[in-house]
Amino acid sequence: MFAFVAILALITPAGAIVGYVVEEAKFDKVAKYLLMTILHSLSIAMFLFLAIFEIIAEERANKHASLLQWIAYTAGFIVIAAILVAKDFTLPHYNKNPYMPYTPYTPYTPYTLD
Q: What is d(CA 35, CA 64) in angstroms, rounded to the nearest whole number?
């Protein structure tokens, strides 16, 4: 058990460091986005695996209100997916300057052709 906790304690910051290095790297934008997509997909897959096969499988073995549990799990996944999709459509796009990406703290800077 100690070995598992030690490995987890080392892997978690290592994953954060890898993500930071890839995010700050200066190489082809398409390759960078592809690599970030792959890394995000792996992390999401790990969360889904743990949720579905480790946690939910134990709860399903209880045999009480299984239809209600399934509806709750499905509703939870749908709500999370809707939030993630809606986030992309509701962010303000005030900053038109292509050299300064928008953040919540970026002041409005109109893009001009001077």
A: 42
DSSP structure class, residue 106 = P
CA 23, CA 16: separation in Å to the nearest integer?
Answer: 10
Integer Cα distance of 101 and 87 in angstroms: 17
Are 109 and 97 within 8 A, CB to CB? yes
Tell me the domain boundaries of the chain: 2-63, 66-114
Q: What is the pLDDT of residues 26-48, one digit of tens each?
A: 888 888 888 888 888 888 888 88
The pTM for the full model equals 0.48
Residue ranges in the chain assigned as alpha helix (H)? 2-24, 29-49, 57-60, 66-90
